[in-house]
Amino acid sequence: MRVLEKEKELMTVKAIITAVLILTVMLSMAAFSSPKGAPKEAKSRGGTFELMREIQTLNLMNNLYLKGDQAGKLVPLVREACEQDEAFEGALSDAEQSMGTVLVKMRDELAASGSLKKDTQRTFMEAERKVAQARFEVITAKKRLVGEVKSLLSENQQVLVKQYEPCLVPTQSQANPDRIGQAGGNSMLLRILEDAREAPEEEYPEFRERFLENTRRMITLHRPDLDVEEELERHGRILDEAREMSDEDFELKKSRMAEEFRKPGGPPAKGGARAGSADLLERNIEQFMLNRYALALLTKVAAGK
User: Fold this and answer.
1) Cβ 214 vs Cβ 278: under 8 Å
2) Cα–Cα distance measured from residue 111 to residue 103, given in angstroms and rounded to the nearest whole number
3) Which has the least CB within 10 A, 56, 152, 200, 218?
């Protein structure tokens, strides 16, 4: 009987340790920081990646030609989305603070006796529950807000949003002049591959880790249907391959490798948001119309500026 109880206790400890590792990684999510010597603005606003996201948002929003009254109706929806994001980030921050103490306590208890006290287990579970609840609330709210934003867009605007491919320098397709992005859609990813190749040997591990941390954050917030660890492994492999290639091979294959970044592997989870035409429209609304950059622009348009 004692043997069975001991085995049950060990299984519980293993499950908690696994959950600790998962939550710790979630709490370590950070924006892809700017390289050394980057402008002060880039560092203060979350780094190069965030500046690129702002430009991508502006490229889409500027091409929708929103009217003042339409922008006015969108502002409260986008503001609510931003508040939801802030609340989730706040929940992660609070959990991180309390988690530091409980992780030290768990380590000491496991080192001393090989088991965890019930109170320690409950403390950890409560912190984990708060993060899960905050994430659920964000996902639920975003789904509703995406639907409301979609209802305020004209048919032509919905087509533009659905067909938008994130770009830094907007280009047009001769076959479809209204399509935003397209050829420039991989520009940011190509830059990341080039930066990976140019990073000094001693700095590359940190560069790789920052990129994967930001990738984890984006997947967690925007693609909950994907297997995060599989995607991180795939992204890391692409970076490593790009770094090891000869200059000639890289020039020949870099566009294909950038496309590989954009193609999540494996089938979507049941009900997951893989890119059918409707899903792609909703995903682009969430990523490029429900953020603080879109809110700033919409506020100006609504005010007639």
Assistant:
1) no
2) 12
3) 200
Ramachandran quadrant class, 135 (left: phi over 0; alpha: psi -120 to 50; beta: rest): alpha
pLDDT in tens, 54-87: 888 998 998 888 889 999 999 999 999 999 888 8
- Taking only Cα atoms into account, the Rg of the chain, rounded to an integer number of angstroms, comes to 22
pLDDT (0 to 100) of residue 294: 93
Measured CA to CA, the distance from residue 142 to residue 287 in angstroms comes to: 10
Distance of CA 286 to the CA centre of its chain: 11
Question: 């939801």: which residue's tokens?
Answer: 84
DSSP per-residue string spanning the chain: -HHHHHHHHHHHHHHHHHHHHHHHHHHT----PPPTT--HHHHHTT-HHHHHHHHHHHHHHHTS---HHHHHHHHHHHHHHHHHHHHHHHHHHHHHHHHHHHHHHHHHHHHHHSS--HHHHHHHHHHHHHHHHHHHHHHHHHHHHHHHHHHHS-HHHHHHHHH----SS----SS-TT--SGGGGGHHHHHHHHHHHHS-TTTHHHHHHHHHHHHHHHHHHH-TTS-HHHHHHHHHHHHHHHHHS-HHHHHHHHHHHHHHHTS--SPPPTT-----HHHHHHHHHHHHHSSHHHHHHHHHHHTT-
CA 192 to chain CA mean position, Å: 16
pLDDT value at 13 more than 80: no
DSSP string for 10-25: HHHHHHHHHHHHHHHH
